[in-house]
Amino acid sequence: MSELLKKRTALEANGRFQHITPQTAGWEYVGFEAYVLEEGQSLSFATQSDEEICLVLVGGRADFSLCGRAIGELGERSGPFEKTKPYSVYVTAGDDVSLIATSPLELAVCRAPGKGTYPSRVIAPEDVGAEARGVGNNKRYVHNILPDTADADSLLVVEVYTDEGCTSSYPSHKHDRNAPPEETHLEETYYHRLNPHQGFCIQRVYTDDRQLDECMAVYDGDVVMVPEGYHPVATIAGYDSYYLNVMAGPVRKWLFTWEADHAWVNSPVYAQKHGE
């Protein structure tokens, strides 16, 4: 099995089933955790002086407190495949957050270095940008939870929907060189969900010289780590895909390079082929 694929594990006592740190991933910036809680279960997180986190309510509701101050119940959708925008909570360096699940809850915790530049805050659905990308069999729908235009020191967070039989994160692109304005170095995790849940999708991670070239069958709740290279996703007939991306690097800007061989899929030639 590829070292880039982190399989979903059995639930720990606190509901956690994914836990990735820079140390376990062998990189510098991105950490990721995923939890499933029953109604009434609680969690708390205290950020270090050099980190920030973003809690994404993938599905379900919870009562939240920030630095001991109650901010009320957050969450509207029961799960990601409702395709409505999520609630999230950004927690700056040195702050703490706690929650009590008021329904079954699926929670993602995104971590990266922070300096405490921006205050902690709720990211409500109306704060989340939405956009459709691509044409033909390369269509996907995006919720920009924490894009590079929003306030944060390092974190970039986005969720993506891809229908059955389509590609996503495609044409193949990469962001592994610290060379702005052409490209930025960003580590990335993909937290995958499939609908129906027994499905799988395919994700490939590869570099131009093919020193890295991994192709993985990814199931519901798995995480793919992208330290470098291109990283397209392909869905399988009968199964829709959701993934939550977390990115961070030395420069908080999403600048990437298309793989030259496949960039034509962005062109009018491909669109006209599909009548779009």
Automatic annotation (TrEMBL):
Pfam families: KduI (PF04962). SUPFAM superfamilies: RmlC-like cupins. It comes from the Bacteria. It is an enzyme of class 5 (isomerase). Its EC number is 5.3.1.30. GO terms for molecular function: 5-deoxy-D-glucuronate isomerase activity. NCBIfam families: myo_inos_iolB. PANTHER family: 5-DEOXY-GLUCURONATE ISOMERASE. This is 5-deoxy-glucuronate isomerase. It comes from Enterovibrio qingdaonensis. The lineage of its organism: Bacteria, Pseudomonadati, Pseudomonadota, Gammaproteobacteria, Vibrionales. The gene is iolB.
